[in-house]
Amino acid sequence: MKTITRSEIIQQLKKDLIGKDSYRGVTLTYSWLANQFGHFSLGFIPTVVIYHFIKDKPELQYPELWASLGVWLAWMLFEVYNFLGPLLLKVPTKLKALNKGEYTFTPSWLNLAFDTATDIIYFGIGAMAASLICSYHPEALLALIMLLVLVGYPAYYWYTTKMYLQNAEYPFQLRLSQWNQNIRDEHKTAVLNFLDNKEQGRHMLIFGSRGSGKTSLSVSIATEASIRNNCCCYLTAVKLLSLFFETSNPPQWNRLWSWRNCNLLVIDDINPGRPVKSDIITTELFYEILNNVDCGQDNIQHLKEKNIIWVMGSDDPTNLLEEKWENLLQQIGVPKSNITTIDLD
Predict the structure, then answer these.
(1) pTM of this prediction?
(2) If you average pLDDT over every residue of the chain, what do you get?
(3) CA-CA-CA-CA dihedral for 236, 254, 176, 209, to nearest 10
(4) Which of 305, 307, 339 is nearest to 323 (CA)?
(5) Are both 135 and 246 inside the same structural domain?
(6) Of 109, 142, 167, at which residue does a domain stop?
């Protein structure tokens, strides 16, 4: 399976730093860099301003340190509140997906805490850099060096994580904790087990009518997998059918991997679901295109051995949709024990 290499990280960094975003568009990695520069600036600028207000006070020694530490502490308290407020104070979030004020899937608090700590470090780097510019102090220099060393791994992790997210080409950004539609407890457990699974070859069929949240659930599951640095790929069924005739992995200008060598594949819009009752893509048609003369066996091998989320329509008992697609998966060699079905209706 594909992983992001060091050379690919360097190439992405060059793309983000050189060129005009109005011409090439804004990537998630570029946004992350801009965000961290913003955190640096919010530590740097207030420190300079406050220093110039307090530097002439005779009763205050080392105003450059007081200014930088005060600004850093203020931002630190803000970030801690920003992180713990919704958890400890039960403050309802304004996000539409969480408008009930509760979580269907528990947020990854450790991941969020790591993100908060990363922001705090960048605030500190800005504050200490400003302190040194205002007036040199060896303690400020030592603190700045320590923060620069400390930020090395978080910067590497978050930048590469943004690369995993943007190369999956999801239609929107949504974490699993933001998904708050109706789901049965046993299906919720099945989703978590699928996400925590370390093996390949697991398949999840998500059924639901229009508005049931099947696409958003599939994207949020895959997003969590991307954040865990798995190479994921989002495709509609019609797009995937056309790719079944490619005999190799042709290079794509905006993707580091294809559906063939990713860890997790999301196949969306296989069928629309209610109120449309008929099957747009039948299992017979899907298998016919899948098992084409040029690369049918290769296609089947990749589908069988890959983790895949199949976003279906409504499971109408008269059409036996679940049974048909489970039979198709078993036909290409997927054990029944590796197939999980989620019905959101």
Answers:
(1) 0.88
(2) 87
(3) -10
(4) 339
(5) no
(6) 167
